[in-house]
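During the no-cost extension, the postdoctoral fellow (Dr. R.K.) reprocessed legacy sequence entries with the updated structure-token encoder. One reprocessed record is reproduced below for audit purposes.
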Amino acid sequence: MGTFAVMIGVGHPGGGDLVPVSATVDTGAAHSMMPESLLRQLSMTPREQAGYALADGQVVEYGYGMARFGIDGREWPCPVIFGPDDEYLLGATTLEIFRLTVDPSGQRLLPVEYHARPI
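Re-encoded structure tokens follow.
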């Protein structure tokens, strides 16, 4: 599947303004990753350090915490990795929290349709 970018907002989980960023949609990444420098500018600090395996097999350690994400006028707290300055990734967990799926041919995010079943 090809990658594409979407505009999202990132902010402190406790509130305040969201900073608009262009993030690459990466369904192969469990969690979203934003630059550590951006998250620290938003007065955020990692809750813990965690190891992550990269596509080339290398294991690296990054900070892990929570951020507030905004997509299409909706906001939710989501896990975030405190990454390098050039990494703006929107991962699978964030997409699931927002109930979004990926349309790779249209290069867009679409709402997941859930239908209630009678009990």
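The mean pLDDT is 94. The beta strands are 5-11, 19-25, 32-35, 48-53, 59-71, 74-83, 89-90, 100-103, 108-111. The remaining legacy entries will be reprocessed before the final report is submitted.
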